[in-house]
Design a protein that fits this description.
This is Asp23/Gls24 family envelope stress response protein. It comes from marine sediment metagenome. The chain has 117 residues and is an alpha+beta fold. The chain has a domain of 78 residues: Alpha-Beta Plaits, CATH 3.30.70. Helix content is 27%, strand content 33%. The chain contains 2 helices and 5 strands; from the N terminus they run ββαββαβ. The strands form 2 sheets. Strands 3-4-5 form a 3-stranded mixed β-sheet, with helices on one face. A hairpin with a 2-residue loop joins strand 1 and strand 2. Helix 1 crosses helix 2.
Length: 117
């Protein structure tokens, strides 16, 4: 339930999660995001699983992510109780590999050659 100027509006957890997902994906060095939202009496707790590049300063990145989530929640008019961040190191950007092209060669007929002893 979100307070608006003239009454109240209901927002689904899915909508909130998608907005937070989109905002967090815009943060540099984030490869993937999975957002979990736990509803509380008058707010939410967010659980984030983030795929990040190896060698990243996780303390600074955590601060940045928490600020982004706070900003998203404020913009949506939702009270944020807590943000839990779980970093999952990934080796690099995912590369979509195409299937190798398979070439079919034409058949060549060969005469049967027998070897006598």
């Amino acid at each position: 339930m979100v307070n608006v100027k003239e009454g109240k509006a209901t927002m689904s957890l899915s909508s909130i999660g998608k907005q937070i997902h989109n905002d967090v994906m815009n943060v540099s060095n984030i490869q993937s995001v999975r957002v979990g939202i736990l509803p509380k009496r008058s707010g939410i707790i967010t659980n984030l699983d983030l795929g990040v590049e190896q060698g990243l300063d996780l303390t600074e990145k955590t601060r940045e992510i928490v600020e982004v989530v706070k900003s998203s929640a404020n913009r949506l008019g939702v009270k944020l109780y807590n943000t839990n961040v779980n970093f999952i190191p990934v080796s690099g950007p995912k590369i979509r590999r195409e299937r190798p092209e398979i070439k079919v060669e034409e058949r060549v007929e060969v005469e049967d050659i027998s070897v006598e002893e």
